[in-house]
Design a protein that fits this description.
40% of the residues lie in helices and 19% in strands. It is α/β, with parallel strands linked by helices. The chain has a 10-stranded mixed β-sheet with strand order 2-1-3-12-11-4-5-10-8-9, sandwiched between helices. The protein has a two-stranded antiparallel ribbon with strand order 6-7. The structure holds 3-isopropylmalic acid (IPM) and magnesium ion (MG). Its EC number is 1.1.1.85.
Length: 357
Amino acid sequence: MTKSVLILPGDGIGPEITAEAVKILNKLVETDGLDISMEEDLVGGAAYDVHGVPLADATMEKAHQADAVLLGAVGGYKWESLDISVRPEKGLLRLRKEMGLFANLRPAVLYPQLASASTLKPEIVAGLDILIVRELTGGIYFGQPRGIRVLDNGERQGYNTYVYSESEVKRIAHVAFQAAMKRNKKLTSVDKANVLEVTEMWREVVEEVAKEYPEVEVKHMYVDNAAMQLVLNPKQFDVMVTGNMFGDILSDEASMLTGSIGMLASASLDENNKGMYEPSHGSAPDIAGQNKANPLATILSAAMMLRYSLGREDLAVKIEEAISKVLDQGLRTGDIWSEGCTQVTCSEMGDAVVAAL
Ligand code: IPM
Ligand code: MG
């Protein structure tokens, strides 16, 4: 049966990078019997400019109906002064929340060809393969109450609430343990249990869930130490599981180990593996419209979509191998370029991946 994919290019470099991923999907439709239909719609600032909101209800409904969503990026200078309730980021957060996409998988994998593109020494990052499992629909991103209020003395006070219920921790822990079982069976749970009660409980719940996975070696690490260990000795990690905000921060950090945030894909899944797929990077408004962006994180996200939501593991592998081939050919966008390589544009990179398929 034909599966439906909703494409939400978004803002900044979003349209350029998703166009390359769509190119690759179209090629697979032609040559590999990929049976999908694609429809595009607006999200983020692009949606705000047309609808006055960063995600129209009709688009939300399409996302519910689709088998998978592929998203570019949201945000940009143009919308930074808008009220926080209608900022581009709210469109993305609404999609995540209303689709119940609590499990965000962010694999930080170093392609050996890019070892010299990392700012760390090649021997520190060679062979790196970390999976960050980030809780995506709870924590301080969504906790109530939140806001900015005026105190009796006239001073303003900003406040957010960091909250997790046991069930939320349990379900993300299960996702992380199951992922670890398929990999090297090592799980690091990242918290700040020495200061924050919410993560003290997080640690206790992870310990309980661990009993169901006796083969997995579990470690708990404070987030400050985890940030340091990621640059000191990143290969000690296999799967990392953490809350929404720590995961946001650590995944950006981990991406740089792989050479560039332009390489980091992500899948955000619900209970039934229905998902939204997006690069982990932002909309990079400084280079938008210049055909300079690295489309590989989005193309790799499309590969994750084939794997988790469209039942085509074979085509996911095919895309990953094609990317490896293109890197072997020495083709690089600016962010991953190093001496001796050929610099290509965003669309040339997409074309090269198509050719390598
Ligand atoms: C990410 C991004 C988003 C987040 C922003 C754009 C809301 O940084 O996906 O990591 O904070 O989750
Ligand atoms: Mg982020």
